[in-house]
Amino acid sequence: MSMIKESAAKNTHNVVEEMLFKPNSRKVVTCNRVLDVPCGDGAFTARLRKRNVTVISGDIVDNIKKYIPEAQFVFVDMDIPFPFEDNSFTDVVCIDGIEHIERQFDFIRECNRVLELNGSVIISTPNISSARSRWRYFLTGQHNKYKSPLSESVITPYHHKSMISFSELRYLLHTNGFRIEEVRTNRIKLISYLYGIVFVFLYLATQIAYNREERDPSERMKNQEIIRTMYSRPVFWGETLIIKAKKYTKLTNHSS
Hints:
single chain, Rossmann fold, 7-stranded mixed β-sheet
């Protein structure tokens, strides 16, 4: 099997692999049956196979068989229900996929359904919550990794049509049976540190805005958690947002 090119930003696969195989509080790695979606050409699937993990590779196009003929490929459209039974996987890995779909809430609910209790979902996506991306949006109305309007005449699955911020992704996960355990980034480019000169101003502006809009004490506490993460090193300066969340409860009124 030849080297498969990684389509995600540099070092993303390395970080996702570290997060996936990080031992739990009992120093046990529980990852043993993983859904890799969208699997693309199979670069991350190849990493899992080297670790002797059972991996199901899902995507809307079967490109993986060109590189890994023996891969267990299943057609998976992330906008519709998955073709898997409940509690089928210990982990779901979604590398740079969620920004390409229309029904993000349904996708997360499907992740909840097919995961075992305490199973994890790892999601990476372009970090539009970074200071650099926010500055680009201020200047042009377009975020980083989405630098110009999408083509309306040539529509492809590769369009970043659903870019998502950290706070939006947290809401999506926390309202659908997950709790975020870890937030990381793939790398911080040197130029990103230049935006440190506006760090204090943005932090204070965010504090004022959140406190002015929210009066409920319990929600204010949650907002403080969000602010701490938004102004952490991975989110404020990082290129790609990488989040690991654990399924803590099964959705009782699941529908897709």
